[in-house]
Amino acid sequence: MVEHITGMLALIGVLSLLCQWLGWKFRLPAILPLLLCGLLLGPGLDILNPDAIFGDLLFPIISLGVAVILFEGALTLNFKEIKDHGRMVTNLVTFGAFITWACIAPAAHWLLGFEWPMAMLFGALVVVTGPTVIVPMLRTVRPKSNLASILRWEGIVIDPIGAILAVLVYEYIAVAAAADPTTHVLSALGMTLLLGFGMGAIAGYLIGIALRTNVFPHYLKNTAVLTLMLGMFVGSNLLQEESGLLTVTVMGIWLANMRGVDIADILEFKETLTVLLISALFILLAARLNSTAMLDLGWGGVGVLLVVLFIARPLSIWISGIGTSLSRADKWFLSWVAPRGIVAAAISSLFAIKLEAIGVNGASSIVPLVFLIIIGTVVIQSLTASPWAKFLGVKADSSQGLLLFGASKFSRELAKVLTDKNVKVVLADNNWDNIRQARMANIPVYFGNPASEHAENFMDLSGIGRVLILSPYRQLNPLVSFHFQDLFGVKKVYGLNNAEGGSARHQLSESYLKRLCLFGESVSYARIASYMSKGAVIKVTNITENFTLTHFRERYGETAMPLIYLTKEQKVKIVTGEDTDLPVGIELISLLPQEAQEQAIIQRNLAEAEEQANKAAQKTLDSQEQTAVLNNEEAPTEQTLTAVDSEGDAEADTTVNNAINEKDETKQ
């Protein structure tokens, strides 16, 4: 028996990883292969029986897993960010959530015969969408950037809000079923709310103070927060049954909105938990489904799904969109994209177990119906969202935006120039000081590893089509490069040639080395950083038929480094080692080291001196011609003209030498 349990645990772990990989490889929500895997192992082949394997431990495992899900979701609920992402997002997570709930609950009551408390609970459970299902779909569909931003932020924010709503409805049902409704329901529910909001706020504040004052060493920070969160969850449940979920949700929201508390590392730590815990949990939940329970829902279940797709979502979008700048096509597209995710599945399974234990009627039907909605929305909308977006004309054009990994001074200056030219730019870096300075310059940023799962869910890549690796992180650069090559394509990712010679260079793959040609095959981060420290500047130059690249080289010399150019059609082109010539009619963005700037000064002074000499020569010639006419003498001879030109050249040489001497004196 022990060997069987050990084998099943190992199998679940391997399959969890495989499902996550399949979702990443085919750009599908990972929830879909996880669902199919659980249904195949459980009801399909009867290989996995979670109740028989885990016994009494199944409920604690699911309970702690749901607590982690809610806490992580709450950590992303920053009220400032809701305001920053527009009126539509705010409306969707407030009025829109209520409208969705108000549409789905009556449908469950009238079409499936659910009692009103259970119908209200089901409606609250399927309000949420979630970034884990939205983000992969957006990458495939590629709608306009404003629509992608609305859907992404709705998924992030609605997770904890919908969870709080579901928890509150559940608390009312559980308390009403366990107590005398006339005497104890309100007092028990009030105690649950008091403990949930009170303990959650106090715990969040104290943990925030501990993080702010570095009470925990860095290597214990993530573990301490996770452990304390689980301790508060269990402690709250001991004081008042079923109040723990509300406590950890409030605790996470408090931490997310507390000033001076950096939770980026905590959110990144969640990645491992997601793969090892949440993915395995989802397979277990799907394996517990009764093969006939979903079929027993019949046409009533299909009717509820149709209400979710064609009534609740469109109604919430059109009402929430009143007073916004969204077009009719935008609203119709948003009306069709709202897949349900892992939060709904996990919380519904937990609540069903608890409600069945206290004998609430209809609890056994909650999970099959929630899974029907998840499967229906994910499958149907994943297959049809892209053609629908194309039909409505809301697909994004060829993405010209750039993600710059590395927010050094050079990257920040380049981002400013590109932003001024209406090119979307996002800077990503692990260095907080670099990110802080970029924020002060109003440049969109992401703090952390752009190849992480957290970045997949929370970094806004709408409008981004290419990646420039501009960081000094030798170990992280290849990982980021390979990650975005899989996402955008090999020819959309460029890197500086930071590879060292010798044996270390041969450890890198040839496919990676071929992309180390950004701005030229010999251009490295150290070289650019050296130029910037010595006063290099980034300049925009118009390359025309009258001022070609040859003229550019003559003016600035060979040290000038072309970086990027913009065509007349506003296409962004990256200069690489493969580019030997550039077309005319472009705006060239280049890096000018100190030597190039000095060369430009000399060339400019030389041109001015030559122009002045020509004017002086012409003036002398005109004067001599006038004198000759008045005196009836011959016109100036060629020898005379040569003498005049020599005087002009001497004057030009003197002017240039003076300019060089002034430059040297200034440098000294």
UniProtKB/TrEMBL annotation:
Keyword hit for Manganese: no
Keywords on record: Antiport, Cell membrane, Ion transport, Membrane, Transmembrane, Transmembrane helix, Transport
Q: Which domain of life is it from?
A: Bacteria
InterPro entries per record:
Cation/H_exchanger_TM (IPR006153), Na+/solute_symporter_sf (IPR038770), NAD(P)-bd_dom_sf (IPR036291)
Instruction: From the UniProt entry, list the residue stretches annotated as the region Disordered.
Output: 616-668
Q: Where are the transmembrane segments?
A: 6-23, 28-45, 57-77, 89-112, 118-138, 150-173, 185-207, 219-238, 273-291, 297-320, 332-353, 365-385
Q: Name one Pfam family in it.
A: Na_H_Exchanger
Cation/H+ exchanger transmembrane domain: residues covered: 14-389
Q: Where is the composition biased (Polar residues)?
A: 620-630
Q: What membrane topology is annotated for this entry?
A: Multi-pass membrane protein
Q: What is its main location?
A: membrane
Record's protein name: Sodium/hydrogen exchanger
Q: Which organism is it from?
A: Shewanella japonica
